[in-house]
């Protein structure tokens, strides 16, 4: 009997994530993997012990759908101490299954058919598919130059009566750039007197270098009243596989987000929430991260200083872009594939995130790796 099932794809143009592609290629060729954004060193043993303690103490059933009370309180205290904004732990903070779920629920809660969402490219590759699943239309704006600056006049010109949301990401993946205070003030001014929601992806908030500051949307009073801020414990505390994050927003917005969160995952890993709640009580556990990762960035850049790659040091995240135009005129995707197959080193070609695959001859390397791994990777890069 013939199979008569016929279904149109809701994401017909969506391909396998470049992160999955490059990581698989790294495994297939036994290559050093500096492509996907995860550390290859262990999370703090104290944090792992706190998870075990929570399990042994019996915290193994469903927690409250919005998150464990103690964790929401610690998140609220952290944001207040860093950015001067108070979020009510009961109505304005929600623990999510990673930052990706926070982003998904935020978009799904508000974007309806034919709504427009402004996305600054290059961008994390879940924004646009989620917008399209909700029937919305991504409005792409390319960041300018190799240092990926925002043209705020272009952003302002892209706003129409259908604009429901703008998505920003700072510190920025994949470029390692950050939005300045002036950037945020310009954005605040642009959104003034509009009904537009700001979705601020701040998963690398604690990874800022060279005495720069993270300018969270939470810091700016007028901006925070229309902002949903998403964050990640996995990126912060070296345990991306635990898939735990959170979002904060004014109560009116959070009420809608929680409706989607409840029917999507309901709740998040209970013992890990208990562990994070205790771990956050010592601010050094996140305040010392910038120094830790800047040391790794500086080590990596010092190791490749005599190579033919050129670069601007990353200002945030744990990614470094390297320009290879003095090595080859190949497209970045081709060069990235050859680098894995012939040289045993995996990276991410940046063009896949740009409008029309704009190719600036740049590869993204993750330096959240052991010193030994970075030394081996640098040795390969210096031979090219």
Automatic annotation (TrEMBL):
Keywords: Aminotransferase, Pyridoxal phosphate, Transferase
Pfam families associated with the record: Aminotran_1_2
SUPFAM superfamilies in UniProt: PLP-dependent transferases
Span of domain Aminotransferase class I/classII large: 31-380
GO cellular component term of the entry, any: cytoplasm
Entry cofactors: pyridoxal 5'-phosphate
CDD domains listed in its UniProt record: AAT_like (cd00609)
GO molecular function, one term: pyridoxal phosphate binding
Gene3D superfamilies from the UniProt entry: Aspartate Aminotransferase, domain 1, Type I PLP-dependent aspartate aminotransferase-like (Major domain)
UniProt family annotation: Belongs to the class-I pyridoxal-phosphate-dependent aminotransferase family.
Protein known as: Methionine aminotransferase
Organism: Christiangramia echinicola
